[in-house]
């Protein structure tokens, strides 16, 4: 059940190599941080690991097999901007139930209130939206969760609340997590090990 | 702060809706009028020729004694019918090609973009006349001509819209949720394109009606015995110099009003459906 990156390299169009020969191996239940200054390709690496982009060199394997092309993806990513990650013409309950049907318990842990479900996305704040995006990504078939600056735009209390919920669920399900954040304290607190890019 | 007492306590969305309903009612009235007006009023009646507008003949009568009000309303109904078919056909072609260009890969996109550019580089009217002439004029010729010539600009708008949505974050998230391309097109892309389609359709209408009138005016459209607006206008041109101004004035004015009505409906639908004004 490992998620492995073997010698991957990537660049946009004909630009310079963003990175080359990156190796990474994550076990289930492990929390790994990716650190590095802005513009080093942290987000791109995350996008490659969750199949949003295909690497130009090397490969990403899950369980020693290539990542599936169809069906529910075992590696889910939560993006930095929740407003862009939801369809503005859908109500919240459709957004929440797009991949699977989250149970009441999960909603409660994440602090999602029932009355939010009947609203439009623009009637909720960024923090509230991000809770939905997290819930949506935590399907029963999610083996690895990639949190790319997941809580950067939230206040400290909401941040702590969301992370606590995610860590709790991850521990229960033996789910691996990749954390990208600029906050050293948060990184230190959450991660078993940190990779410098 | 606005301290003026508001006369009409409606917000701009309610106003838009009110305008749409009003315009739609007027159009419905014209159509119903056209369908139920007595055909007997437009038969030749040589005892009552060339009479100016009066209470009995609101728009006057022509050189054959036909009541111009009845002819105008019937002509408008016919024009709206032609416009409806033409605009619906054009908008459907635009929707299909726009979606296809944006979702079926680079080659399809290049081909369709080329077609759009080709059609846009020639004035509508020229292609329309060519097609209508080739098909031998008449109702069929003009409807097919209108359908085949009015789609390019709307197709371009829809293509751009779909391309933008296709690369949106939530579409990519949806892919990772295991949703198929078709599912995404149907559930994510179509709801965003429907308003463009509706507005585009309503705004095509006036175009189509005016072009229909224009082609009929030069004699390539509907046959002369039908009470189409274009025919009424082209016939009355001959009698303008003899002082019978009402023959061209009222039908022309009515055409203008109808076209404005459709324009209003389209504009207000756009106002109602734009998602950034959802907030009030």
From TrEMBL, chain A:
GO terms for molecular function: ATP binding; ATP hydrolysis activity. Gene3D superfamilies: P-loop containing nucleotide triphosphate hydrolases (3.40.50.300). The keyword ATP-binding applies. It comes from the Bacteria. It holds the Pfam family ABC_tran. Keywords: ATP-binding, Nucleotide-binding, Transport. The keyword ATP-binding applies. GO terms for biological process: transmembrane transport. Residues 3-197 form the ABC transporter domain. Belongs to the ABC transporter superfamily. This is Peptide ABC transporter.
TrEMBL record, chain B:
It is a multi-pass membrane protein. Keywords: Cell membrane, Membrane, Transmembrane, Transmembrane helix, Transport. PROSITE patterns: ABC_TM1. Belongs to the binding-protein-dependent transport system permease family. Residues 76-266 form the ABC transmembrane type-1 domain. One of its GO terms (cellular component) is plasma membrane. GO terms for biological process: transmembrane transport. The keyword Transport applies. This is Peptide ABC transporter permease. CDD domains: TM_PBP2 (cd06261). The chain crosses the membrane at residues 20-37, 73-99, 182-205, 243-262. Signal peptide: none annotated. The keyword Ion transport does not apply.
């Amino acid at each position: 059940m490992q998620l492995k990156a073997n010698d991957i390299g990537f660049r946009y169009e004909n630009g310079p190599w963003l990175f080359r020969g990156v190796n990474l191996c994550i076990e289930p239940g492990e929390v790994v941080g990716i650190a590095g200054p802005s513009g080093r390709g942290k987000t791109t690496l995350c996008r490659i690991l969750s199949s949003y982009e295909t690497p130009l060199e090397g490969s990403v394997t899950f369980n020693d097999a290539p990542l599936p092309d169809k069906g529910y993806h075992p590696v889910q990513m939560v993006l930095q901007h929740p407003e862009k990650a939801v369809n503005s013409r859908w109500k919240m309950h459709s957004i929440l139930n797009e991949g699977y049907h989250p149970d009441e318990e999960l909603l409660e842990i994440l602090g999602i209130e029932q009355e939010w479900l009947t609203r439009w996305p623009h009637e909720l704040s960024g923090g509230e939206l991000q809770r939905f995006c997290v819930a949506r990504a935590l399907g029963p078939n999610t083996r690895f969760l990639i949190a790319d600056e997941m809580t950067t735009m939230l206040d400290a209390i909401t941040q702590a609340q969301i992370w606590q919920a995610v860590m709790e669920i991850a521990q229960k399900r033996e789910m691996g997590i990749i954390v990208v954040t600029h906050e050293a304290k948060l990184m230190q607190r959450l991660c078993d090990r940190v990779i410098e890019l | 702060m606005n301290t003026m007492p508001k006369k009409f306590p409606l917000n701009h969305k309610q106003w838009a809706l009110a305008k749409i309903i009003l315009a739609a009612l007027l159009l419905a009235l014209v159509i119903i009028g056209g369908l139920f007006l007595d055909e007997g009023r437009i038969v030749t009646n040589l005892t009552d020729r060339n009479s100016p507008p009066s209470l009995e003949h609101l728009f006057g009568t022509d050189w054959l004694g036909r009541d111009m009000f009845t002819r105008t309303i019937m002509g408008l109904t016919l024009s709206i019918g032609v416009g409806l078919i033409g605009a619906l056909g054009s908008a459907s072609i635009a929707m299909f090609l726009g979606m296809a260009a944006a979702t079926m890969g680079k080659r399809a996109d290049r081909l369709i973009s080329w077609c759009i550019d080709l059609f846009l580089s020639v004035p509508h009217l020229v292609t329309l006349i060519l097609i209508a002439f080739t098909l031998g004029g008449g109702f069929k010729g003009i409807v097919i001509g209108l359908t085949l010539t009015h789609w390019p600009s709307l197709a371009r708008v829809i293509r751009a819209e779909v391309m933008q949505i296709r690369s949106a974050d939530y579409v990519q998230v949806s892919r990772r949720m295991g949703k198929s391309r078709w599912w995404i097109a149907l559930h994510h892309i179509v709801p965003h394109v429907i308003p463009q389609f509706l507005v585009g359709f309503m705004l095509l209408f006036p175009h189509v009606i005016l072009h229909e009138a224009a082609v009929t005016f030069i004699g390539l459209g509907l046959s002369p015995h039908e009470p189409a607006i274009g025919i009424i206008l082209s016939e009355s041109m001959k009698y303008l110099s003899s002082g019978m101004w009402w023959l061209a004035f009222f039908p022309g004015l009515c055409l203008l009003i109808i076209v404005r009505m459709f324009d209003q409906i389209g504009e207000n639908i756009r106002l109602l459906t734009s998602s950034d004004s959802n907030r009030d």
